[in-house]
């Protein structure tokens, strides 16, 4: 065998120190990546265990969830047949929809609106003023009575 064949065989069997360091560094990077993935999985498991162990909140039954008698004036405004029973939240949503369809909302602040004559009459509002959707509940309260 020639000297060059011996060197290549020797080189393949005994990698250089640089090659050994590169191999070790690659292995460390692989381990690091695996460790990060495991950490992410552990955090996800912790979240799911935490949410699964929380007691489920039981929603309280409120008047908003009971069908109520509604005044004939409000039913006419909502275009509903006489005697229709709605929950307060359903009626509020219908009024809000009417307000949006009739484009009564303020352009600069969509949370506020100015009632037209028909709505002002339903709300018993005089003089007519700009109100928010949150305030709408108190103006409609007199239209609801327990079923």
Write the layout of secondary structure elements.
Elements: H1 3-13, H2 17-53, E1 68-70, H3 72-77, E2 85-86, H4 88-101, E3 112-113, H5 117-123, E4 131-132, H6 136-140, E5 144-146
Antiparallel strand pairs: 1-2, 1-5, 3-4
Structural class of the helices, strands and pairings?
mainly alpha
CATH class of the largest domain: Mainly Alpha
**Helix residue percentage:** 40-55%
Low-confidence stretches: 1-11
Mean pLDDT: 85
What can you tell me about this protein's structure?
The chain has six helices and five strands. With 147 residues, it is mainly alpha-helical. It folds into two domains: 3-53; 63-146, SWIB/MDM2 domain (MDM2). It has a three-stranded antiparallel sheet. The termini are far apart. Residues 1-11 have low confidence and may be disordered.
């Amino acid at each position: 065998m020639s000297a060059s064949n011996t060197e290549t065989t020797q080189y393949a069997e005994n990698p250089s120190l640089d090659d050994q360091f590169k191999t070790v560094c690659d292995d460390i990077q692989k381990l690091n990546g695996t460790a990060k993935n495991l950490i992410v999985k552990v955090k996800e498991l912790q979240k799911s265990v935490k949410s699964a162990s929380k007691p489920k909140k039981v929603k309280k039954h409120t008047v908003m969830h009971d069908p109520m008698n509604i005044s004939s004036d409000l039913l006419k405004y909502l275009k509903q047949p006489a005697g229709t029973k709605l929950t307060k939240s359903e009626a509020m949503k219908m009024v809000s929809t009417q307000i949006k369809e009739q484009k009564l909302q303020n352009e600069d602040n969509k949370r506020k609106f100015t009632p037209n004559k028909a709505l002002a009459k339903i709300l018993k509002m005089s003089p007519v003023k700009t109100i928010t959707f949150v305030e709408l509940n108190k103006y409609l309260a007199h239209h609801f009575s327990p079923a």
